[in-house]
Amino acid sequence: MYLSREEEDILNGGMGESAQKAIELIVALGKVYDADGLVNITSAHLSGASYKTIGDGGVKYLEDVSKDAKVRVPATLNPLGMDRDRWKEMKISPEFAKKQLRIIELYGKMGVKTTCSCTPYLGDNVPRLGDHVAWAESSALSIVNSYIGARTNREGGPGALAAAIIGKTANYGLHLDENRRPTVIIDADINDTVFENSLLGQAVGKMIGTGVPYYRNISPDIDGIKTMAAAMAAAGSTAMFHIENITPEASKYSTSGLETIHIGKKELNDARSSLSTTDDIQLIAFGCPHLTVREITEMAAFLKDKKKKRNDVDIWFCTSSEVRKRCPDQVKILERFGPVLADTCMVVAPIESNYQRTGTNSAKAGNYLPTLCSQKVICNDFIKLMEMVI
Ligand code: F3S
User: Fold this and answer.
1) Distance in Å, CA 17 to ligand 1 centroid
2) What is the pLDDT at residue 97?
3) Which of 44, 256, 258, 374 sits a CA distance of 20 to 30 A from 114?
4) Ligand 1 centroid to residue 221 C-alpha, Å
């Protein structure tokens, strides 16, 4: 594997101990995947921000790395285990809050932007077509590859942080043209609603696992694409897909000779019922991935004249602090039903301490709520879930 003189110097400790460890990790990964060398990156997005997911071991690791490391490229951070200002409303313990605030401090010390959303591509971290980047967060990195046309592998938290520290990653996988080719055609007959796109992602992720699907007959907007990408990455491990006439590289590769899978109402229904394991709920949580201004606006329009009738069910709307700031009037309407929480989500918050049954309109959350939060789940669209409480 070729290393430049500068890279050799980092490997020999010329940029400090943390940078040395970072490049050791990147080079080791490169060797495993047969990379020919390293490639400069223009940004990183890091996971491993919630105290619930990284625990005391993760805090200790960040304490060590942050002693002498700074990121060399713009880097953003995934959602936290709580809303920084409203954690008491989330029934978070003071002990948890203290550790969570320390984690934010440590990332900030390294120069990471602590906006903490899983949709940074809509705000403060927007790669350009053809950029090489190192992103963790499976839904966001899939959007980067498939909607923006920048290039990233499915990084883990430590790999993305290491890449951010040295400004480089190993040149393999989805950084290379040959691995971005479609491997199967998906002929979808669905309504382009956000929820049906989520179920489509669930059905396809389950069927193909890894692989690069090429979608025909759909034209989702960004809200639909983000929820589809999230579900595909959770149900399978898809990190790249093409949508005809949307993905910048969709016309670059031939699809002749590829198998075609048809997805229609039956597959969507199967996907929905496979994720639904209860018939009542204690919490309904929206915003996986984080809600956009348009989603919040549509929800507020629906709820404007409604009243919440059940006090035994909590409702959370999860988004970024930037989006929450941008639509104060709509947020006020939603707040009559439940808190609009910023920079956190129902999966990385410790909801299992207070709830056992959760409703979601996200297939990604439907996959993770049982495994990461010990929840029974109802997976349905926004209106059907709200009709259970209004
Ligand atoms: Fe985002 Fe949390 Fe879902 S990080 S994609 S809202 S699991």
Assistant:
1) 33
2) 98
3) 374
4) 19
